[in-house]
Amino acid sequence: MDEGVPVERLEIEVFLALAEELHFGRTAERLGVSQSRVSQIVKGIERRIGAPLFDRTSRRVALTPLGRQLRTDLEPHHRGIQQAVGRATETARGLTGRLTVGYTAAWNGSLLLEAADRLRTRHPECAVDILEDSYGATLRSLRTGRVDLHLAELPVDEPDIVVGPTVCTAARALAVPAGHPLASRDTVSPEDLALAPLIRPADVPQVFLDAHFPQHTPGGRPVPAGPVARSWQDFLTLVGAGKGVTPTCALAAAFYTRQDVVHVPFRDAPPVHYALLRSTRRADAKVHAFARIVIELAAAG
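== Transcriptional regulator, LysR family ==
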């Protein structure tokens, strides 16, 4: 088109849409304008250029050689404009930059990686880092900004931490030394926690300890206190060395295979619930977009 003749955005969109649809009715529906408006715009462009861009008959619409040339010339510029506007919109909404997401259970890592890929597909200017964390570091990581989101075990009851909906659940199991009498059982009960020292995590709130590492069984029997562990590898090492037992998920058996540790399912314990956590100070568009994707994927199974 003549550089001296201004071209409206709608004119470009109408031309490119008609060049793709080759049908006035479908083009009008796609752009939300009337069919007569599409025809009027195309005729106006052709008058300014001085030659037809489309061959029209009662049965078909086709691009002329000039129309094909114009489409080839316009498409990359139009795509560039759309991408530039999209990037500006994402920046304005906060959907650009880097997001860091933590998790405590290895079996949740693949869910977060899939969510990260999907977020990047939807918002190419946004990158996600996924990192494994420990029980005790979860709240600290959120408060210091080391992570923006955390997929971790419930319960969490902290005034500065927002707990999202439950993302997934897993059946409980008890990690026991391979030589312990409990290792030969098909299942265990919470009452069996009275039979061995219970290895507990360091630096976790009491509400979490009460839910997962109780001091008494449901029947009131005292649970012997075992050593304290700071990482999951510490737990497994202590269990394998015969220093005690520790509750975990049945899925752990597939992710942490050791000859000196046996994972025995609980037959009558509630499942472990996992939810996305964030600091009350962290609530931008990236965080919400990623959380929505995680929930979508978890719901889809």
